[in-house]
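pinned: reference chain
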Amino acid sequence: MHIKLKAGHGMRPRPAFVMGVLRMAALLVILIMSAVIWKSCFQQQGAWQTTSSSSTVDLMDGTKCVALTFDDGPHPVYTEQVLDVLEKQQVHATFFLMGKEVECYPQIVKRMHDEGHLIGNHTYSHINICQTSCQEALQEVTRTNDLIYDICQEPVEWFRAPYGCASDSLEQKTQMIWVTWDVDPLDWSCQNADQIVNHIVKNVSENDIILMHDAYPSTVEATERIIVQLREMGYTFVTVEQLMMP
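pinned: its structure tokens
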């Protein structure tokens, strides 16, 4: 006995109808995923731009941290290129600035501050404080602090002495936090991106402070490669303040 099925009661849908439904469902899924991804990227970008360098970083136990620092800026060309790399990679760094360069390029200093980087003092004219009177050195530090404050409207708390010189008397007078470094690829000397990257990757350890200079195209190139490679090695990038403060 043959039974003829009525449409809507067991009859197989037509292939064209099935394909149409599948296409609509796939399109709907794509639209939903695109909206979610766009919202997530927008929120992350906004959060990165407005995050202060002094904000608390939510780091889980076992997180390997490292701090990128740049001396001698701001440079009229290469500092902005370094900032572009940091913005692209969503990394906050620490910049130790010379007062004479701050006077020339205040707009670059403002961008550093607005994008959440930590700004420190590197004297006004890169003097060797070990070969200068304490009074003269203090004048250089104070003058640079005032210049940075006029732009950022925040007191400068961090200092790095040119050439890594130490002066207990000057340190007491400045009442600032003095910062040295752990890894120095001598980027100002070699000016070779491959050498800079290889030296840092080979020598870096957890909680290290990396010294570079934002005044050379080779350092700009190396910066992005360093970020990518150290992330692959499990490192998280923080400012000096976030690294050193409890």
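why pinned: Strands lie at 64-73, 94-97, 118-121, 158-159, 177-178, 208-213, 235-238. The first strand starts at residue 64 and ends at 73.
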